[in-house]
Amino acid sequence: MNRYIFCVLALIACNAPAWGQSPSVYERLILSDNPHWYFRFNETPEWAAANGNQALNAAAVLGSTATGNYYKFPGDSGSPTLGVPGIPGGGAGNTAAYFPGGDYHSQVEVLDAFGTVPSYSLETWIKPNGSAAADPGTILMNTNNFPGDFSHTLRITGGKVNHEVHVPASGNFNHSTNATINADEWYHVVAVYDKGDTNATMRLYINGLLDATYNVNNGNIPWPGGTSWRIGSISGPDRNNWYSGVIDETAIYASALTAEQVWLHYRTGIHEAKWVGGTIDSTKSLALANVIAGGNGFGTQSGAGINALDGTLVQVGDASQYAGRAGGAGSFTFNPVNLPYVDSIFIPEIAGNMQIATSGLVMQHNYPARSGQTFWPLFGFVNGDKFSDWKPNDFGVTEFSTAKTGLVDYATQGHSFLSMHANKGITFDLQAIRDANPGYTVDRFLTTVANPNASGVDVNVYVDGVLYWGVGITTTQTYDIDLGISANAKYLTILSTDGGNGFDWDRVLFGDPTLTLGKNLALNKPVYASATYNNNDSRFLPGNVTDGIVSEKSAYEGYWLAPQDADGTYLIVDLQDTFLIDRIDLQNTRNQNHNDSGTKQYTLQYSVDGVDWFDVVTNELVTDESLLTELLLTSSHGTSLKPVGAGYQGILPFDTVYLGEADWARYIKFTAESHYGSRAGLTELRVYGADAVPEPSTWVMMLLGVGMVACAVRRYRRLPVMD
Fold it and tell me: For the domain that residue 402 is a member of, what is the CATH number?
């Protein structure tokens, strides 16, 4: 028999089997929520054979002094079959019990002394047989003196799960799920009776989500004491409605489980989390200057570039480096490029929605006409190599360094830059980059841009033809670009034009232009929200924060919004496996063009088991990298958040949180402590793994729930090109 004892280790209460096996994560989670009793069904067939079929000794009932028996009625054939596979997340060696149903009358009887309580919860996992999914079958029932007293029943009827409370003086209160129960599938079922101040609410959850509610007007259904329970059949002299199928992990609580508790129970139980560590190369930096020079983004190719007149690769020493054109009214030049990750190059002139990719993609806004005059290829330099071979040494790198306060010279070791004369556009193939780097997404575009001669240029950045960032530069000021890239984006386009005032000295430099590639552990993972502004509008649902989509420009691109003024609302992301993590990226929201919402102060936490949560940081989520303050304006939506500063186009940058030391986590919790405007929200949450395995002692400490790591919050900057 599974006898459990309580132990205290490292200030954490846990249940451990007498034979020394560690409790499963799921078991520990359930026990942390204080069940009145908790039945694991972990006895083995060998144990059953040794103890007989009539009354199989006291069952393993956790969390109370209740006792129980596997039981079949005299003269009936069959009994529960033990040792069948249990739920996926039940832990090593987890088993369940199979109830044959029909003429094979079998059940589990649990005797306990359960005092009167105002609220309670019934929880179980079921996997019904064929027709049993539609036929009546009692999963769980308790009564004091059936049929004349109180009874509480959880059953399947008509293909639905039904929760009924029988009150002698008032009749029956019951409701059923909207979801239909299918055969041979695991279902996590929770029935809650929640006593309020005046009325009560009955709630049914299926697979971690609220499925049905029922309001009880009198709100006064006491729980009788001295009752007995049946698992797998109805109680009383006319025992019937035998359940047919598998049952596992069954518990009752003298309290109303919260939606968060139910969600965590389901997420932990439905998936057996693996521990994923090791060198996983969670992030890589692809240098666009190296790509333009003919490399793959990770090499040292330098001093070459693309001729916009024909799309060919040229070296800095070639005479063609001076190739240009005077331009002509209404002309437009577009050329495919035969280089890894480069789709095309073009020279804009005509106004309108010009083509910017070989797929036929066009710019999604009406661009003004420009002169079409341009000189020199688009060159890429890495580590300053071959820069001295470039004939027009007056290009302005020295002035560019001065514009960066003299701290950065991009023509030196460890740095790279692109040189682009005005009136050129270049489009990179993001899908080709993902194809060449399996398992990675293109997460961010980072660079510093300047017009060293202050001649007046326009610089725009597009993703899939949509303007993500744009600025007119008329001084030596530099601008940092940090753009999140959606996981399904196809093209990144960089465009420089003459600003409408002629093209002389219109040179644009992009310092350390980088695409960061990452293995986002949170991508498309399940998300729970303690509250949501509008559950019926897909734009605001919690799952949007892990969908990989960073833009809010389209009605089809979602984000999460909390209810109005609901500070303290939170999200929990289930990574599904337990990873060694060291970085979390956060992207705020502005509620599309309404500009009236966003998270201000937030808290980040993580957990392995959903029981012990460790603080990462409490900080402010700023709205724009070029700003450390925000400007609140008044609009038709009330107080409105609208950052000021050149280049802002509504695509918010990411804030990055680094753990001071890598640690293990399955669950990530983001709490919006305060908000801008009317409500808090979030567009994206991304999680990245560490690239090293901790010492074995660190594993032990994490498993015991011990240890708090420091963290640092900073904006993620470009990684230097390695030689």
Answer: 2.60.120.1060
pLDDT digit string, tens, across residues 520-553:
999 999 999 999 998 888 889 999 999 999 876 6
Domain match, 457 and 594 both: no
How many CB atoms within 10 Å of residue 537?
12
Question: How far is Cα of residue 367 from the mean position of the Cα atoms in its chain?
Answer: 36
- Whole-number Å distance between alpha carbons of 690 and 708: 17
Amino acid code (one letter) for 500: G
Q: Among 337, 336, 342, 345, which Cα is nearest to 296's?
A: 342
User: Strand 597-599 vs strand 675-677: parallel, antiparallel, or unpaired?
Assistant: antiparallel
User: Per residue in 455-480, pLDDT tens?
Assistant: 778 888 999 988 888 888 877 778 88
Q: Is residue 262 part of a domain?
A: yes
Which residues in the chain show pLDDT less than 70? Answer: 1-23, 43-79, 102-116, 131-136, 143-150, 169, 218-228, 234-240, 277-281, 319-331, 350-352, 365-369, 390-407, 454, 552-557, 623-650, 691-723
| Cα–Cα distance for residue pair 524/300, rounded to 1 Å | 35
DSSP letters spanning 289-320: HHHHTTS-SSS---SEEE-TTT--EEETTSGG
Domain end call among 461, 484, 518:
518
Predicted confidence at residue 294, as pLDDT, reads 95
Q: How far is CA 359 from CA 355, 464, 469, 491, in A?
A: 9, 11, 22, 10
Q: What is the pLDDT of residue 650?
A: 55
| 567 and 479 part of one domain | no
509 Cβ neighbours under 8 A, 6+ residues apart: 396, 397, 400, 410, 417, 418, 419, 420, 449, 450, 452
Q: Structure tokens of 334? A: 């577009």
Residues 6+ apart with CB under 8 A from 171: none
Contacts of 35 (CB under 8 A, 6+ apart): 62, 63, 64, 123, 251, 252, 253
Contact yes or no for 686/585 (Cβ under 8 A) = yes
Q: Mark whether 328 and 432 lie in a shared domain.
A: yes
DSSP state of 352: B
Q: Tell which of 518, 536, 565 closes a domain.
A: 518
Phi, psi for residue 289 in degrees, rounded to 5: -65, -35
**Angle of CA points 413, 415, 419, to nearest 5°:** 120
CA 682/CA 544 separation, integer angstroms: 9
- Domain encompassing residue 422: 283-518
344 located within any domain: yes
Nearest to 290 by CA among 409, 397, 428: 428
Q: Which positions ≥6 away from 422 have C-beta within 8 Å?
A: 374, 457, 496, 497, 498, 499, 503, 506, 507, 508
Question: Residue for token digits 């200030």?
Answer: 11
* Among 405, 79, 107, CA closest to 235: 107
193-213 residues labelled b (16+ CB within 10 A) or e (exposed): bbbeeeebbbbbbbbbeebbe
For the chain, the domain total comes to 3
- As beta bridge partners, residue 346 has 334, 425
How many CB atoms are closer than 10 A to CB 638? 11
Residue 422 near residue 507, CB atoms below 8 Å:
yes
Q: Are residues 333 and 414 located together in one domain of the fold?
A: yes
Does some domain include residue 186? yes
Which pTM does this prediction carry? 0.83
> Which residue is listed with tokens 């899908």?
431
720 found inside a domain: no
CA distance 457 to 434: 32
In angstroms, what CA-CA distances link 449 with 89, 495, 508, 590?
Answer: 50, 12, 7, 25
Q: For residues 29 and 612, give the distance between their C-alpha atoms in angstroms, rounded to a whole number.
A: 9
Q: How far apart are CA 628 and CA 655, in angstroms?
A: 12
Same domain, yes or no: 472 and 540: no
